[in-house]
Amino acid sequence: xxxxxxxDQAMVxxxxxxxxxxARRRLEGKLTEDQFKPLRLMNGLYLQLHAYMLRVAIPxxxxxxxxxxxxxxxxxxxxxxxxHFTTRQNIQYNWIKLDDCADALADLxxxxxxxxxxxxxxxxxxxxxxxxxxxxxxxxDPRPYAELxxxxxxxxxxxxxxxxxxxxxxxxxxxxxxxxxxxxxxxRIVQRDGAIxxxxxxxxxxxxxxxxxxxxxxxxxxxxxxTYAEACLRVYNRYGRRDNKYKARIKILVHELGAAExxxxxxxxxxxxxxxxxxxxxxxxxxxxxxxxxxPFVSSEVETQSLSTMLEANGGQGSAFGQWVRRxxxxxxxxxxVSAVISLKPAGGIPGDATSEQMRVVARLAREYSFDExxxxxxxxxxxxxxxxxxxxxxxxxxxxxxxxxxxxxxxEDIIACPGLDYCSLANARSIPLAQRISERFAxxxxxxxxxxxxxxxxxxxxxxxxxxxGHIGILGVDKxxxxxxxxxxxxxxxxxxxxxxxxxxxxxxxxxIAAVEKVTDVYLASRAEGERFLDTYRRIGMEPFKEAxxx
Amino acid sequence: MKILTGNDLxxxxxxxxxxxxxxxxxxxxVDVGDEAEEILARExxxxxxxxxxxxxxxxxxxxxxxxxxxxDRVRALGPTVRRDLAVPTAAKTGWDWVI
Lengths: 552, 99
What we know:
heterodimer, A: Sulfite Reductase Hemoprotein, domain 2
């Protein structure tokens, strides 16, 4: 993985000391909250319902064991012994004190981490495919390109005060595991006639006005990759609305201009920027790529083992371990290896939360069994990207002992949920209790396995941090005359078959929406054809049978 | 009744105006009546509490101060999903008080 050079480290260290001074002046009363707020937000420090919240960037979700151990230490030293992994592959601490924040940032800097650009109207942490570097279906590892974009976008002087926040995802396979087209800019690294380049999508997003990004260029040569991104941002920065924060995202600009006109302007800007020469030298991309060289996989047939052989020797497919292997492992590009998903969704648990002790267990497993690499998934789980099949029993036993052995990836228990009204100052309703009750109920009744793949996503307000627009089943919490109310929606997807969910009808109270989720899964089970997922059945039979069950 | 709340500058903890200072316990909140604006201006200038503001509240049947909006009731007790992290007031009121 990428390691800081002297410039990276110097910038991060300098920012820590700058923030230390800003926090000191705030505590001494020399800065008002209005003056301090933009400064703390630039360093990822929010003020939430109960305390300050610090959001730490995890570029494209990649970590090593030493970094995860530091995140665990910070949870113990400055917070309350746990952290919350987010849909932008970051981590949040919910109980940080302003006095301690600069010290926490200084500790982070010792392991090449920071909280810069995790808030504010700037380019946020760049996300990617959590299976990057391991997936059997990728054209190339997308992370060097994401890292190049990280370096380009960090402290970019033109893009520090954009009309609104800006989110970029970079993937490199046909399968979309990063909600790429629901980003302000989505990039897919592709290969055409032997040349590497990038497809660009612009103007996607969730929030109060969800939109799917249209394709704006089907091939940008890789040597012009950053220049094209710069052109996209420059057009947005110039013409994106600053008079109304609800209409300030690039999706509104692309929608109002029309994709064709936005493309025309970007192409014009692109031609201009090519003449200016802002593209980093090719050597820089090559330097970055070297950090992402594949680890030394064992390749001899004697030492690699097939999944079926390993399972036969360890209880078979029907065992708890076998179910975990079937659900939570993913095909790897190297023979004899898989990627192993660590569920942070125990039935009845809080999606995305991990204790410091759990983080240390995962760090140890990454060091011992995954070439010192791990990932944060946008689904709020963790991942060991490179596990030898022969090591899976030992990995699972350690995870299970730490309460991390749930076999529920991509099932109705694998719920994305924002912090909601339990933590977030923007929320209108609680999200986490719904996730807890739904996962518990489906686990208890054994329906999780019967239902199969079903992506349920819950947001506590219209900002859609819980990706409800992209859920096969989505739930949005709203404020109805001072009480919590929940809108149900169906048919969303953030994958390569991207679509936006549609609202079923009038909302429900907490008990009602849980019953409603059960009813729509009943309709699915009664209607599904062989091999259909919930989403496939919904797309085939439409909304009406579900509405009839809910409101008829 | 009208009560004042904010978040402590150093810790971010939820605080309630008790008539002479800021308390961590919602039951200590006092009705500020017509003095809200004056106290808010003074306390904002003192910079001990972040963005203090006035909210509506009532006294419930058990004698507890109960903010009118659910968001402030969650603030008063702590995350409903981590009751181990709640402020001690939660033991007096019970979690049903929030909803």
